[in-house]
Specification:
This protein has 232 residues and is of the alpha/beta class. The chain is built from 8 helices and 8 strands. Helix 6 (145-162) packs across helix 7. It starts with 5 loop residues before the first helix and ends in a 5-residue tail after the last strand.
């Protein structure tokens, strides 16, 4: 679009491949059957790991003090999510020919889900009013690196207190780990007559697009630039 000539168009083209693996793919007892579904991870330029705090026992207890979200009910499933990243690290090291404790060289983005439920645990930050993107004077818009790094630092401190095993699993796998809060819905689901749903008018996503765009920016492919506060 807007380019003249085959050479210019080719230079501006990119192929973006996204793979979404379910957590079930990383159960140790299913490794043999589902291994082909996870082989691509060793070739990935960036990884995104989605952590659901409402499936973590200690995090759930902290959220219950300030939230009536139905996902905090006693019948809601709780699982060991650190086992997912541990198993993923094991398979990636195997396919990438890395030593048992060698760090993966690509960036790992940890998307901490359902911010609307646990936002009160970070009372000094309102992510809905923070803009993770920055525009320059020449019309270029990119990831605001300083803000992302500060958000990651604050969120990591919270996770060290509430879910230390998850932080330990991520840090033992990668040197380059960024924690990003997200809320794709921005509101709690409602339960009526045993059915779960969300009112469309209540949807207010917060930072839902940031993990993917940030991960793309870290691959240095040129699609999403990374900018700091001193860019004009």
């Amino acid at each position: 679009i807007g380019y003249k000539g085959e050479k210019e168009l080719r230079l501006a083209s990119r192929a973006l491949c996204l793979y979404d693996n379910a957590g079930e793919h990383f159960r140790p007892n299913l490794e043999a059957a589902l291994s082909p579904a996870t082989n691509h991870l060793a070739l990935s330029e960036a990884l995104i790991y989605v952590f659901d705090p409402l499936q973590h026992p200690k995090f759930r207890q902290l959220c219950r003090k300030h939230s009536q979200d139905p996902q905090l009910n006693d019948d809601f499933q709780v699982v060991r999510q650190d086992e997912v990243i541990i198993e993923a690290a094991k398979r990636i090291r195997l396919k990438a020919n890395l030593a048992e404790h060698e760090h993966f060289k690509k960036p790992l983005v940890v998307a901490v889900n359902k911010l609307d439920v646990w936002q009160h645990l970070l009372p000094n930050i309102d992510f809905s009013n923070l803009h993770p993107f920055q525009a320059t004077g020449n019309g270029v818009t990119g990831i605001y690196a300083n803000m992302i790094n500060e958000a990651s630092r604050v969120l990591r401190e919270l996770l060290v207190q509430a879910a230390p095993e998850v932080v330990a699993a991520c840090d033992s796998f990668c040197n380059d780990v960024t924690y990003i809060p997200i809320s794709p819905q921005g509101c709690s689901p409602e339960v009526k007559d045993g059915n779960w749903g969300v009112r469309p008018a209540s949807l207010k996503p917060v930072w839902a697009e940031v993990p993917l765009l940030y991960a793309i920016s870290r691959t240095n492919c040129g699609l999403v630039p990374t900018l700091s506060s001193n860019h004009k």
